[in-house]
Structures are given as structure tokens and as C-alpha cells.
Write a structure and sequence with these properties.
- This protein is α/β, with parallel strands linked by helices and 276 residues long.
- It has 2 domains: 43 residues, no CATH class; 170 residues, Rossmann fold (3-Layer(aba) Sandwich), CATH 3.40.50.300.
- Helix content is 33%, strand content 22%.
- The protein has 9 helices and 10 strands.
- Strands 6-7-8-3-9-10 form a 6-stranded mixed sheet, sandwiched between helices. The chain has a 4-stranded antiparallel sheet with strand order 2-1-4-5, with helices on one face.
- Helix 1 runs antiparallel to helix 2 and helix 6 packs across helix 7.
- InterPro entries: AAA+_ATPase, ABC_transporter-like_ATP-bd, ABC_transpr_CbiO/EcfA_su, ECF_ABC_transporter_ATP-bd, P-loop_NTPase.
- It holds the Pfam family ABC_tran.
- This is ABC transporter domain-containing protein.
- GO terms for molecular function: ATP binding; ATP hydrolysis activity; ATPase-coupled transmembrane transporter activity.
């Protein structure tokens, strides 16, 4: 593993302590080491997803599905959007994932310093930085093994050995992340239980470690045990990822939610506490 990647991996799981800085000293060439104060300031940076005046009207129509949507979600936070069916919730997720282009508005990531001041220009949220798990994701499984399902679309040429080696490391991390360690990689994904199918769908999206993880009705069609398992899994993922879900299952997620919004008919989004 390159030293830069190892450095980022190690510091991501450690507190801002003196020992944390010592690891930085060991892994960083002396010529580019910063002072402890600058290093601690670097660690104090945080990002916020910012959606501004986002509207969407399908091409060839005069009816807007989303109207001037605005919201922000801080990194490593858990956001939930609720509201009636047909109000535009899934459409919003598709725009965030880059599956459709907005008619107007912006979707950006803004970095801030520890004092809450922007420290650089905002950057567009690109599709490569987003992982999305659709409702009933198991319906979209297309291969005959867990391994093939997760690696579908990966490069197959021999010249891409180093790339595949890197992806294999990410695969193992994703499998550990979602608790699929005990599942044989040659197992047919369609034979998994409902809860493990959702875990597999999450692992597919987590291989690339997205800046934003989106889920559409993640508990739909699951029995009570699988629902409990998925909620626990998302609680753990929240420690490392920014998570945004659309769900009608408000009580199950109430303990995880940092921000919530109601989508009203006509594609109007309003920040509002969960009505439970």
C-alpha cells in the first residue's frame, strides 16, 4: 500500500492525540512535515453537502417534480427524508447520485475550518463520490456468486493487476464493514436471506468508499430481524460515512437521525422533526 494511502487509512480511525501526530511523523517524509498545530488544524476540517435551489423538470414536460430544494448535511451525519409517495423523494436521490441532471440549482461539497469558515471553493458532488442502494436492490443482482456480484464491471485485463489488487483490498474492507465475513464468496447471492442481500447491496457501493451513501427505503420487504440488523449496520456505518435515506420507517431510524426533512407534494422540501 502506498505510504500516503496507509497514512490516510491510519489517521482516519484515530483520535486527534499526540500519538496520532507521532504516526503522522513516521509516515510523512521530513521535508514536508508540518508543525503539530498545522496538523491538528488540518484534522479539524469538515465537509458539508450543500444542495441549493435544486429543481427538476423532466425533458419535454412542463411539470416540475422538484421545486427549489435546499438542504445541507454535515459529513458523518445521518439524514432522513420522509413524505408521501409520489412527492419527489426518489427523484431527489437520483439527482444526488448523478443519474439525472437537474434543471437548475447545484449539488456541492463545501469544506470548512474548525471555526466554521469556508476554506476553499465548493466542489461539485460527482457521481463517483456517491453510492446509492435502491429499494429492493436484490432485484438487480445479475451474477451467480457474491464475489462476481461485488466485482461486476471491474477490469479483467491482465495489465490491470495493480488496479485489481487495490480493488481487492477495498473489497475486503467493504465485506468486513457490512459483516459478510462468514459468507462464502462463491455463494449464489439470490440464496441469501433478505438481511444479507441488503448487506451485499451495501458492500457493492462501499467498495469505493463514497463521500455520500444514499438508500431508498432500506427496510422495505424485510422481516423484523433483518430490519433490526440493517438498522444496526447503518448505525455503525454512520461513524465513518455520510448517510442519507428516504424512508417511511421513521421509528426504526429515529435514534440515528441528525437531520430530517419532509418532502411535500409538488417537490417542496422542508426541514422538520420526525413526526413520531
Amino acid at each position: 500500500m502506498p505510504w500516503r494511502a496507509l497514512f490516510l487509512f491510519l489517521i482516519s480511525s484515530l483520535p486527534e492525540t499526540q500519538s496520532h501526530y507521532h504516526i503522522y511523523l513516521l509516515l510523512t517524509p521530513s521535508g514536508i512535515q508540518t508543525t503539530p498545530r498545522k496538523f491538528i488544524r488540518l484534522l479539524s476540517l469538515f465537509c458539508i453537502l450543500q444542495v441549493r435551489d435544486l429543481s427538476y423538470r423532466p425533458p419535454g414536460t412542463e411539470h416540475s417534480l422538484l421545486n427549489a430544494v435546499n438542504f445541507s448535511l454535515r459529513e458523518k451525519s445521518f439524514g432522513l427524508i420522509f413524505g408521501p409517495s409520489g412527492s419527489g423523494k426518489t427523484t431527489l436521490l437520483q439527482l444526488l447520485a448523478g443519474l439525472s441532471k437537474p434543471t437548475s440549482g447545484s449539488i456541492c461539497v463545501q469544506k470548512y475550518d474548525k471555526d466554521g469558515k469556508p476554506c476553499q471553493s465548493s466542489q461539485p458532488l460527482t457521481p463517483e463520490r456517491v453510492g446509492i442502494v435502491f429499494q429492493f436492490p436484490e432485484r438487480y443482482f445479475i451474477t451467480d456468486s457474491v464475489l462476481n456480484e461485488v466485482t461486476f464491471g471491474w477490469p479483467r485485463q491482465r495489465s490491470d493487476f495493480h488496479l485489481k489488487e487495490n480493488l481487492a483490498m477495498k473489497l475486503q474492507r467493504a465485506i468486513n464493514w457490512v459483516g459478510l465475513n462468514g459468507i462464502a464468496l462463491d455463494k449464489d447471492p439470490h440464496s441469501l436471506s433478505g438481511g444479507y442481500k441488503r448487506r451485499l447491496a451495501l458492500a457493492i457501493q462501499l467498495v469505493q468508499i463514497p463521500d455520500l451513501l444514499i438508500l431508498d427505503e432500506p427496510l422495505a420487504g424485510l422481516d423484523w430481524k433483518a430490519r433490526t440488523d440493517v438498522v444496526k449496520l447503518l448505525k455503525n456505518l454512520k461513524k465513518d460515512l455520510t448517510v442519507l435515506i428516504v424512508s417511511h420507517d421513521l421509528k426504526e431510524f429515529a435514534g440515528l437521525v441528525d437531520n430530517s426533512w419532509r418532502m411535500e407534494m409538488g417537490g417542496v422540501l422542508r426541514e422538520e422533526p420526525l413526526p413520531i
